[in-house]
Each structure stands twice: as C-alpha cells, then as structure tokens.
Amino acid sequence: MDTSVPARDASGTGEPGSGGRPARTGGSGGGTEARRSDGSAEAGGSGPAPAARNAGRDRTRRADRRLGVRLLLAVGAGAITAVPFGLLLLLVEGAWPPLLRLDAGAARRLHEVALEHPGWTATLRFLSDWLWDPATLRIAVALLTGWLLYRRAWRLAAWAATTAIGGALTGVLVKVVVERARPSLQDPVAQAPGYSFPSGHTMTATTSCAVVLLVLLPLVPRRWRGLCWAAAGISVLGVGFTRIALGVHWFSDVIGGWLLGGAVVVLTGWAFEAWRGNAGRPRTDVSEGLEPELTDEEPEPRAYGTESGSRDR
Fold first, then answer.
1. Quick one: which of 142, 160, 141 has its CA closest to 264?
2. Chain centroid to CA 294: how far?
3. Sequence-separated (6 or more) residues with CB below 8 Å from residue 40
4. pLDDT tens-digit readout, 192-202
5. Which residue from 11, 103, 128, 284 lies 20 to 30 Å from 48 (Cα-Cα)?
C-alpha cells in the first residue's frame, strides 16, 4: 500500500499546482491604489483629487465675486429701499405738523432738564463726545477688522469694513440731500456742526455695535450672549437719547439714524449670508453671529467642500 502524501510545494502552502505564488485579491497593484471613476488615482483615500480641489476653489472664487457685488448693492439699497426710513424722510421733508410738534416738544423739555442739572448734562456730554463718539466706535471697528484679517477671516473682515464705511457714507449723503437744520435753542448746552437728519452719532452707533456684536458672538459663551445683546441695545438707545437731551438733534433725526443704520446692517448681512450659501456653508442663526466658524483654527478655508474647517467635516 502506498501511504505517501502529496509533496508540498516550495512555498509550504500545501496547495499543489500553485507554484508557490499566493493568489491576487483585487485588481492590479495588490489593492494599494484605487482608481476613481473619472480616471484620477487616490492612494489609500489620502485626500480629494485635484479636480475636486479645483472645483471647490472655483466655487469659492465665484462666491467671492458675488459677495463684493452684493455688499455694494446692499449699501445702496439701504439708502433707497428702507421703507420705514423712506416714510420718515417724506414726513420730515414735508414738514408734517404732528412730527414737528413732537420734535419741538421733546427738544424743549429735555433742554430744560439739561439746564437745571449741569452734572447730568456733563455726564451726557462725556458719553456722547468720548465713549459713544463716532471716532471711538469707528476705531473699534477698524481694530476688529484688523484682527479678522490676522485670523484670515477675509470675507467677514470685508463685511465689517463695508458695513461701517458704507453706513457712514450713506448718512453723509442723506444729510446733504435733506439739508435739515439742527435745533436752535436758547442757552444751548452743546453745539454740533453740519446738517441734522439723520443723526450721524446714532447711525454710527447702530452699525458699529451691530458689527462688533455679530462678529464676536461666536466667541462668547452662550450664557453671556444675552448681556452682549443688552449692552449693544443700551448703547444704541443711549446715543440717541444723549443727542436729543443735548439739544443737537431732533427726535426724528435719531429715529432716522436708527432706521437707516439698521437697514444697512440687515442688507449687508443678507449679502454675507447669501455668500455663505454660494460657498457651501450652512445657514446660521443671528444668535450665533454671522460666522460661527470663527472659533475654528481656520475660519475660512481656501476651498469650501474640499478643505473645510472642522464644522464642515
């Protein structure tokens, strides 16, 4: 009886006829390189193909161009299509008697209080001429814009600068067109140059406080965000009150500054949100700020959808 067993091949695999070569699994190259359907190669899924990266960058560039156009259009629309401001402007230009009586009554009563309480008046002048002065607020926005550029948040910096500068230029343009005289009071406690409508202090406070708030909200813990909104609101309202109490603006001037400044912020904010959509970013809630990704190491990646920040992965 032949009790011999089949001889093993040189490889020791025990599979006769295999020639010592293990069978291949998968395609050529032992599965180390996967072929994409478009013909480009990806080694071990290490990253997006060049075609995908280029497509993402092209999308971002197109979104950037649209952002610039939308920001400029938004500033112009803020002066033209702000319906409440337009209605107020018509009443001011038409010298509507009820509005004139309201303006004169508010100016007279607050002026009497200012004359009777010089300490109170000095506090109002400090707030109006230093803390809430347009130059102070614009410096704050300029420093914030510089910080955004340092953080490479290019588009958010463009939004902040456009909103602040566009709002200031819009206010000056409307003043020149309306040419409304400032209040003329006996024994004035303060003086201010230029035309009256709308209030430049009030408009600057509205745009500047909105810019600072909407930019920095993502960096503030949620439990403190309510205080930030309150501080911004008090500042905007306080600026308006000081300008009326010091006798340098009519009540309707202040209302006009609030409305026109708010219109500029809303419209430029819309332009920025539209850019986020074009660039593939998720929609945001105003309570989160304009760009929640500001907390990321790279808030505005080079190509959304291919080299995005941690919130997009």
1. 160
2. 11
3. 49, 50, 51
4. 888 999 999 99
5. 284
Tell me if residue 42 falls in helix, strand or coil. strand
Q: What is the pLDDT of residues 277-308, one digit of tens each?
A: 777 777 777 788 888 888 877 777 554 444 44
CA atoms in the 13 A half-sphere facing the CB of 294: 23
The pTM for the full model equals 0.69
Long-range contacts at 290-298 (CB < 8 A, ≥ 24 apart): 290/156, 290/159, 290/214, 290/215, 291/153, 291/156, 291/215, 291/218, 292/218, 293/218, 294/151, 294/153, 294/156, 294/215, 294/218, 294/219, 295/218, 295/219, 298/152
Residues 6+ apart with CB under 8 A from 129: none
Its sign, for the CA torsion 100, 106, 109, 111, is negative
How far is C-alpha 4 from the geometric centre of its chain's CA atoms?
A: 85
DSSP E strand boundaries for the chain: 34-35, 41-42
50 prior amide bond cis, ω within 30: no
Q: Which residue bears the tokens 């395609």?
A: 27
Q: How many Å apart are CA 172 and CA 179, to the nearest integer?
A: 10
User: Residue 101 corresponds to which tokens in the numbers above?
Assistant: 């009586």
**Residue 246 DSSP one-character state:** T
CA 18 to each of CA 22, 28, 29, 31, 285: distance values in angstroms, whole numbers, following the listed order: 8, 19, 20, 21, 66
Residue position matching structure tokens 């009326």 = 244
Pairwise CA distance, residues 176 & 66, whole Å: 31
Torsion of CA 83, 86, 88, 93, to 10 degrees: -160
Which amino acid makes up residue 289?
A: G
Token pair, residue 306, equals 């291919």
User: Is residue 238 predicted with pLDDT exceeding 90?
Assistant: yes
- Residue 106, both tokens: 């508010």
Kindly state the tokens that stand for 219: 């960096």
**How many residues does the structure list for the chain?**
313
